[in-house]
Amino acid sequence: MTEMYRLTGAGNDFLALVEPPAAPTPEQIRAWCRRGVSLGADGVVTIRRTANASDVDLDYWNADGGWAALCVNATRASAQLAFQLGWAKDALTVNTGAGPFRARRLSTEEIELEMAPATEEPTAVSFKYELEGWAITVGVPHAILTTKDDLGAYPVAIVGPGIRRHPFFGEAGANANFVRFVDEHGLDIRTWERGVEGETLACGSGVLAAVVVGVATGALELPARARTKGGFVLTVDGDTSDDGKHITRWTMAGDARVLARVETFPAAERAVAAPEWE
User: What domains, with CATH codes, occur in the chain?
Assistant: First the structure.
């Protein structure tokens, strides 16, 4: 049997392995993450203590078994797990493939993550369906498309796959984020995630990417509150440059919870092929 924890960050759900003897295989990850026939999740993380008592190391894999440098919600949720395990009291550093991030525990259900600024400016891109948007990398690549229409009725499942695999992003592709700026401090966001190949209930790095675009274009001011499909609000704050168009330091705070500890039986790792029509 394999022991793991179920975590969530604003609806992004994960399976966490604590100091496993070996990293999970892509086959295991794909089997565990397939909903309905196993536990189901958007991704899998491993967390390990380091020689520095205030640090933990994190690795993250998407549901398709592919490793990713960063998942912000997985980082926040994993920090919550580390606090719950007694590895730190109220602050620690999480080392990810995209660098270290300082996490602070606001409560047993909320984590704030402090991050360095984006290393690039948003790039205007013409996407499919005659849509205009922006491309930016925030740990992982993102496409940001804005709309003034009702985001709940937006055809994410139709438009998302084409944006996710747009040639601009090369073979790796990008997360496709659909955003409505509500006012100068608010936005709604839905995300079609690469590696999950479907819409998720939240995407932390997608929220950050949308806020970067919003600040750069003058549509947003900090603090910015992003309402996700999971029903949670993620708050992005920090410092901006003198012209107010660039974020020089940022934080993200919001839902991050440890839901359960489970032990899987071998059947959870049994791969079941999807039907040909999927």
Answer: 2-114+258-266 (3.10.310.10), 123-254 (3.10.310.10)
- Residues 95-105: tens digit of each pLDDT: 999 999 999 99
Other Cβ atoms closer than 10 A to 241: 11
**pLDDT, tens digit, 9 for 90 and up, residues 118-167:** 767 899 999 877 788 999 998 889 999 999 988 999 999 999 999 999 99
> Does 71 participate in catalysis according to the annotation?
yes
Query: Which residue type sits at 100?
Result: P
Q: What angle do CA 22, 201, 220 make, to 5 degrees?
A: 115
What is the torsional sign of CA 46, 49, 52, 55?
positive
33 catalytic per annotation: no
Q: Of the listed 71, 151, 196, 208, which one is catalytic?
A: 71
- Name the residue among 21, 1, 4, 22 with its Cα closest to residue 13: 4
